[in-house]
Amino acid sequence: MQFAFEDCVLDIGRRELTRQAETVSIGPQVFDLLVYLVQNAERVVSKDDVLEAVWGGRVISESTLTSHINAVRKAIGDSGGEQRLVRTFPRKGFRFIAHVSTAEPPEREPDRGLQAGDLPSSRGPSLPEKPSIAVLPFQNLSGDIEQEYFADGVVEDIISALSRARWLFVIARNSSFAYQGRRVDVKEVGRELGVRYILEGSVRKAQDRVRITGQLIEAGTGAHLWSERFEGTLDDIFELQDQIATSVAGAIAPQVELAEIERAKRNPTRCATAYDCYLRGLAHLHRGTRTSMDEALTLFQKTIEIDRESASAHAMAAWCYFWRKVNGWTINRDKEMTEGLRLAQRAIELGRDDAVALTRGGHALAHFTGDLDSGIALLDRAVFLNPNLASAWFLGGFLRTWHGESESAIAHFERAMRLSPVDPERYRMQAGIAMAHLFAGRIETASQWAERSYGNLPSFLMVVALIAATRALCGRQEDARRAVEEVRILDPDLRISNITNWLPISRPEHLSIFADGLRKAGLAE
Question: What is the pLDDT of residues 366-420, one digit of tens each?
Fold first, then answer.
């Protein structure tokens, strides 16, 4: 189905927006938001309507919603000042007010099959089961041949970094560089190489600075999924090359994962493969609510039924049990802890060289056993295997927080947020850095980080408890009392005396400051 309005055409099937016959770069969630507004043009849609339709009911901040509305307006040539196409109704919601006409997209010519005279390679290899990407040589826009060597080095490092993600199929350097110096059609390259995603970019030198621009494209549709610009000085060109490669690889992997999750959602056949089940489970796991985690656990269990050797599915299922524990959602605590421990151990057994399995399995294992040293060792191995895996950094930060290494923990959280600045698990990173600052004695800073996390997931028990404790320690007694009332609602059984059964806080002085704050807020002994 296509929707036409003003000089734009929105093609649902191809997930493509064109404006004045030019493809517009637009992210998956911004695209989904635009589709929802256009499809409901006859009415005002509330914020809750939008959250349910686009974010699956996950709570997001007002600034995030506003930025996405602004991105929609920008993509279709509107603005917050004009509101010609998308109008905001204060305290009511939003409405798409432009005239919209619909049409079926033109039919494509039927596939005539391989005919005499066709090149055998013209159809290309079939897509692998796991997500696949090719990193093309970056264009040298500076006219300086030295910068071409620099750009080639960046691309080679990006290919090497992405190859460390075992869940990602990465085309080898020699095949990617066969396109160097050629004008390419990304759809054709995708078919020839048998990949779903293409990363392309350019390099430009200006005096003593270099600017690298990269963009991720879905090869089948030509849709732009992500773009970013990186700059640095030429003081140490090799260090700059490493920094840019790390930044690009760290940003690309989460974007590919999110695009794959969106693709799985659009598949009308639920859980056709273990991988589809796994992706659907990830989408629910990221939301973090009780209902979504129940759904995630069911999907990971289904994945294991289909593929009993899936280390990542075992690890994610174990992590679901951990999340139930840390939020006070367990029904039969002993039984669930035993099952979570079994799954975590199996994940590590199956995935000794799988960074994702070691990350989630190792983190869950540390919580179930209280063995923080072993957990940290497993997370450190995950970072060694894939230094660009944001979850390995932030979950390693949590274990260091509980171990009493606040400053090291904060560095881990900051590294995770730098690697994946728009990560769907950012609220978890914010919660971790809040706790680390509390243990370091920076109460006000801890409170600020906890409030940010709360804005994205108000049902996160640890964050609500942190807010209660830090408000009380800052002398905001009435605010602290209201927060501790939320704690009682989220987990009626939580007491000062059983905090260590909830969180594995190893240092007495850290337990003391957290308990003191909760006690002053009014939590029962």
Answer: 999 999 999 999 999 998 888 878 889 999 999 999 999 999 999 999 988 877 7
The two three-digit tokens of residue 494, written as one number: 């939580």
The answer to whether the beta carbons of residues 250 and 420 sit under 8 Å apart is yes
Give the C-alpha separation, 509 to 486, whole Å: 25
Query: What Cα–Cα distance (Å) separates residue 232 from each residue in 155, 204, 288, 426?
Result: 16, 11, 37, 26
What sections of 288-425 are H helices per DSSP?
A: 290-306, 311-326, 333-350, 355-369, 372-385, 390-403, 406-419
Helices and strands in the chain, H and E counts? 21, 13
- What's the distance, CA 143 to chain centroid? 37
Amino acid, single-letter form, for residue 500: T
Domains, the chain, in order of start with CATH, read 2-103 (1.10.10.10), 132-266 (3.40.50.10610), 268-362 (1.25.40.10), 388-525 (1.25.40.10)
Residues 6+ apart with CB under 8 A from 514: 438, 439, 465, 469, 499, 505
Phi and psi at residue 213, in whole multiples of 5°?
Answer: -120, 130
Strands 223-233, 139-140: pairing is unpaired
* Measured distance CA(414)–CA(419) in Å, rounded: 9
- Contact of 409 with 401, CB cutoff 8 Å: yes
Cβ partners under 8 Å of residue 435, min gap 6:
398, 401, 446, 462, 466
pTM greater than 0.70 (yes/no): no
Question: What does each C-alpha distance from 384 to 164, 199, 238, 322, 390 come to in angstroms?
Answer: 10, 24, 21, 24, 12
